Automatic annotation (TrEMBL):
It comes from Tanacetum coccineum. It comes from the Eukaryota. PANTHER family: GAG-POL-RELATED RETROTRANSPOSON (PTHR11439), RNA-DIRECTED DNA POLYMERASE, PROTEIN KINASE RLK-PELLE-DLSV FAMILY (PTHR11439:SF524). Pfam families: 2OG-FeII_Oxy, DIOX_N, RVT_2. The keyword Chloroplast does not apply. Keywords: Iron, Metal-binding. Residues 145-247 form the Fe2OG dioxygenase domain. This is Ribonuclease H-like domain-containing protein.
Length: 834
């Protein structure tokens, strides 16, 4: 250290100790600091000022370049500026001489007789950490002839062994109008552009022009006062000379534009504020929110319950950005230009602007901005520019991989480039990728959605795929095609889930549109091709209504079988298109719901359940018996087999159905009978297997198939193969249903299976690869086994009840198994059937 260097280490020892102790515990900081501090190499705009003297177009272009550089960079270099090299050199020689005096002489003002006593400064008295300390010294010499407050400052940055832990000059903006700077060959000056520090390379013959805060306010944010800093050099001292152009203290700074971003202020007031901020916060706050014509005028904000006169620390605008709705009533002091002199104590009530609306979409650090007026848009852009260092990319044409093209009817969005990249990655050439999404500029506000569901479409999981499209007027706003999360037992249930999804989506869209100040006045229309679901939703409206009236919100509907449980009272309502079966845990509740239904819908009450969807319900002391006797008789009539002898079993164990035989003469009859038998399995699980068998030949029925079908009918006068996984799917659905009905099962469901390998496969995730017949369902049900919801057990042949669904059986076994399925004769025909 030279004897003339300021005693940085001793004076700021505490800061050094604090910093380097911390460094020991966080090693990585050092690397980051070095990387950050190097700055990018970038050439600042360089302007030849001699062009100004050429007049005409050349000088006009030169002025434009200056304006452009001031707006985009806030910094530029000039050559042919009129200050001779000799003057600059002499200035530097004088400056070096002054700094090379003993430190104490500099502090005591004993080095230059022309310099005022307090012209020497070094370090940063208010620094609370090393980053706030300026590793530099300066002589400030006022040029009273030019300006009362402006002057020339000579700066010296002693070599700094601990750079970059400490800056030569910490990041700041200049508080003046304009700075003209001359630096030596060492370098170290950097400016902030688009979030990056850019090195200002030293060029001997150039002067650097820096826009100051006052210029920014005066130009209403058009020209930028940009943050800059000096990184001290580890090995060499550096000199620079700065001329700060400042107005007199009482000069009022205000922009001449009608809508001004900044309030009017005096230079004196601003200077004072900067000094106060450095004292209070360790750094300058500058123009920022404080000088903006807004809520925080006078540095005061009002909080609920606190007097309007209390003063708070200023908001950090970066954090206060995008804060959502302002629901409170807010008052502010009269802004300087709008004071009512007769009532100096009045405050202003803030009201939201009427029609001026702007939308800002932020994706990480990309912003899309749109506003109802160009002025507002410009105003916001300038505010953003002031607050953040950002590039304005002009009108929207590319965002997140999507091109935006404008035409007379609106916008077209295209992902052509993105699609090409996918094709290239996949090794396909370029296809025809010119299709995009057209968005129309229209003011329609009808929200219309279309929903469709492919029931159990996924062969692996048996889940359904539901898709929807939502249009706002002509514009497709939202769409989705997704596998549902849960299994659906019927197409109605799957469709219902699909519609519920689109309802959620349209609710969200409605809310969004409301927040964007374009609320919809008409109801959302949702189209769905399943009539039952439409009825279902009509019912929900009704049920919602009565549940709102009768029960607390937590007990409102949650599924298509609805139950109300404000205590122990439960009601189940099952809806099939327009038939309803209703049951409740108490007569009162039942009655209450029936009368509400009557009020809402015109309907006939058929009394206690005895016939529903072709199924008659008979009661006896042990419970109910469901029978499709009448339905079965009608099938027999259609098949012309009323008088035939019954058969004891529905399937012939000797013959197996195949593809051969003569085609049947009445294939339509075959199909209709097979379809009817399918429905009959509802109360005849015992025919499931063989019905499923004859179903296989619906597309091309042959005589042997018809014989098999007839045999079922013979048997009926008085079977769907489902593998283990199907049984699991079914039982899963039942488990879910029981849970929905508030009677959850606590133990795992037992599935009996006749092959040992089936049991093994269900619990072994690896072994299933080779067994192709189980491939489809195995994943699904193995997951359930893993979760403990299902246990698959091997069943000895005597108890293989499921065989009735998978093969033809001898009459002894068949009858035994049929009994185990609770299939038995009803006591007598019922009134409902006759
Ligand atoms: O020394 C330099 O290069 C910059 C000086 C500076 O930014 C200032 O004094 O405000
Ligand atoms: Fe500066």
């Amino acid at each position: 250290m030279d004897p003339f260097d300021p005693p940085f280490r001793n004076t700021y020892k505490i800061l050094f100790d604090k910093h380097f102790n911390n460094q020991l515990s966080t090693k990585s900081n050092k690397i980051e600091a070095v990387q950050e501090v190097n700055g990018c190499e970038f050439d600042l705009p360089l302007i030849d000022l001699s062009r100004l003297n050429q007049g005409g177009i050349e000088s006009e272009y030169c002025k434009r370049e200056i304006a452009k550089a001031s707006a985009e960079w806030g910094f530029f270099q000039v050559v042919n500026h009129g200050v001779s090299q000799e003057v600059l050199d002499n200035l530097r020689i004088e400056q070096v001489e002054a700094f090379k005096k003993p430190f104490q002489d500099k502090v005591n003002g004993q080095c230059e007789s022309d310099f005022p006593v307090d012209s020497y400064r070094w370090g940063t008295a208010s620094a609370t950490c090393l980053r706030q300390l300026a590793w530099s010294e300066a002589f400030h010499v006022p040029l009273s002839k030019i300006s009362t407050v402006g002057g020339v400052t000579g700066l010296r940055y002693p070599s700094c062994p601990i750079s970059p832990h400490v800056f030569g000059l910490m990041p700041h903006t200049d508080s003046d109008f304009l700075t003209i700077l001359h630096q030596d060959h060492i370098g170290g000056l950097q400016l902030l552009k688009n979030g990056k520090w850019i090195a200002v390379n030293p060029k001997q013959e150039t002067l650097i022009v820096i826009i100051g805060d006052l210029f920014q306010a005066w130009s209403n944010g058009t020209y930028k006062s940009v943050e800059h800093r000096v990184v001290a050099n580890k090995h060499f001292e550096r000199f620079s000379t700065a001329y700060f152009l400042c107005p007199s203290y009482d000069t009022i700074i205000e922009s001449c534009e009608e809508t001004s971003i900044y309030r009017r202020f005096s230079f004196k007031e601003f200077k004072q504020q900067v000094q106060d901020d450095v004292k209070s916060f360790g750094q300058k706050i500058g123009l920022s929110s404080r000088y903006k014509d807004s809520l925080v005028v006078n540095g005061r904000i009002q909080l609920e319950g606190i007097d309007v006169d209390e003063t708070f620390s200023p908001l950090d605008v970066k954090n206060a950005f995008l804060h959502g709705d302002l629901s409170e009533t807010v008052y502010m002091h009269q802004p300087p230009r709008f004071q009512v002199s007769e009532h100096p104590d009045y405050v202003c009530l803030l009201q939201r602007q009427g029609t001026d609306i702007a939308y800002l979409l932020l994706y990480v650090d990309d912003i899309v901005l749109t506003a109802f007026s160009k002025t507002l848009l410009q105003q916001i852009i300038s505010s953003l520019h002031w607050e953040f260092s950002m590039t304005d990319l002009g009108s929207l044409n590319y965002f997140l991989g999507t091109y935006v093209m404008h035409d007379s009817s609106g916008l077209i969005l295209s992902q052509r480039k993105y699609a090409t990249e996918i094709l290239e990655r996949a090794g396909y050439g370029h296809g025809t990728l010119d299709y995009g999404l057209q968005l129309f500029s229209s003011s329609t506000t009808n929200l219309v959605a279309y929903s469709d569901t492919d029931w159990a479409g996924c062969p692996t999981t048996r889940r359904s795929t539901s898709s929807y499209y939502v249009f706002l007027g002509n514009n497709l706003l939202s769409w989705s095609s997704k596998c549902q999360l849960t299994l659906s037992r019927s197409s109605v249930e799957a469709e219902y889930h699909g519609v519920a999804n689109v309802v959620a989506e349209t609710c969200w869209l409605r809310n969004l549109l409301r927040e964007l100040q374009t609320p919809l006045s008409s109801a959302t229309l949702i189209y769905c091709d399943n009539a039952s679901v439409v009825y279902l939703f009509a019912f929900f409206m009704f049920l919602y209504d009565i549940s709102m009236r009768t029960f607390s919100p937590k007990d409102r509907l949650s599924h298509y079988l609805r139950s109300f449980i404000p205590g122990t009272d439960i009601a189940y309502l099952s809806l099939y298109v327009d038939d309803i079966v209703l049951t409740a845990s108490s007569k009162t509740l039942l009655q209450q719901i029936i009368s509400s239904l009557h009020q809402e819908f015109s309907m006939t009450e058929l009394g206690s359940l005895n016939y529903f969807l072709g199924i008659s319900v008979m009661r006896d002391s042990s419970g109910m018996i469901l029978s499709q006797r009448m339905y079965a008789t009608k099938i027999l009539e259609r098949a012309g087999m009323v008088g035939y002898n019954p058969s004891r079993t529905p399937v012939d164990i000797k013959s197996k159905l195949g593809d051969d035989g003569d085609p049947v003469s009445k294939p339509t009859l075959y199909r209709s009978l097979a379809g009817s038998l399918q429905y009959l399995t509802f109360t005849h699980p015992d025919i499931s297997y063989v019905v499923q068998q004859v179903y296989l030949y619906m597309h091309d029925p042959r005589e042997p198939h018809f014989s098999a079908l007839k045999r079922i009918l013979w048997y009926v006068r008085e079977a769907e193969y489902r593998g283990v996984a199907n049984a699991v799917a079914e039982t899963c659905w039942l488990r879910n249903l029981l849970r929905d009905l508030h009677t959850p099962l606590s133990s795992a469901m037992l599935v009996h299976c006749d092959t040992v390998s089936g049991v093994y496969l269900s619990s072994n995730p690896v072994q299933h690869q080779g067994s192709k017949h189980t491939k489809i369902d195995i994943h699904f049900f193995r997951d359930l086994v893993a979760a403990g919801h299902v246990r698959v057990l091997h069943v000895p042949s005597r108890y293989r009840y499921a065989d009735i669904f998978t093969k033809g059986l001898s009459s002894v076994l068949f009858e035994e198994f049929r009994t185990s399925l609770s299939v038995r004769c009803p006591p007598a025909p019922t009134a409902g059937e006759c």
